[in-house]
Amino acid sequence: MSVMAKKIVLASSNLGKLAEFNALFGPLGIELISQQALGIPPAPEPYLTFVENALTKARQASTISGLPSLADDSGICVEALDGAPGIHSARFAGPDATDTQNNEHLLHLMKNHTNKRARYVCALVFIRHPNDPEPIIASGSWNGEIIESPRGAYGFGYDPFFLLPDLGQTAAELLPALKNKISHRALAMQELIRKISHE
What we know:
The chain is of the alpha/beta class. It contains 5 helices and 7 strands; from the N terminus they run E-H-E-H-E-H-E-E-E-E-H-H.
């Protein structure tokens, strides 16, 4: 686990993600620094898969900071929309879209569909240095359904509209402590830590 004993730059400026990762890494005594705090600009995300975009972000953050880096690329994939918004989740309604605008766009596209199944997907990439030829990759998915009216005050993004049928709650209704155990990001993080601990 020595690889995790260093400072790690998180290749994201999303404060919601930073809070979730800090909660997940906290028990391990790991210091996460956001790329924004280091003046690192967002990396381009030109690829069609979560993994490729996460790797691009991780390499840029590590190159500029000189630190090991962790990047995630995540989003919501809606079955009736052929997996959209997918990698475009953060900018579904446009380049500078807000969460509200993205959710409104999703609901508009869903209004004539009876299939409400969706899943959150997260790909995590950890690299030890910018030219790391063996990045550690982990992924997680979280199944649910899209609902028409928002519920809950926690979370961010599409969480208020993402219903977990088994729990009868949306992702935004879950207490953060529970979400950080069962979410797509938590599952990917658990896999990543397992992989790193065997190094």
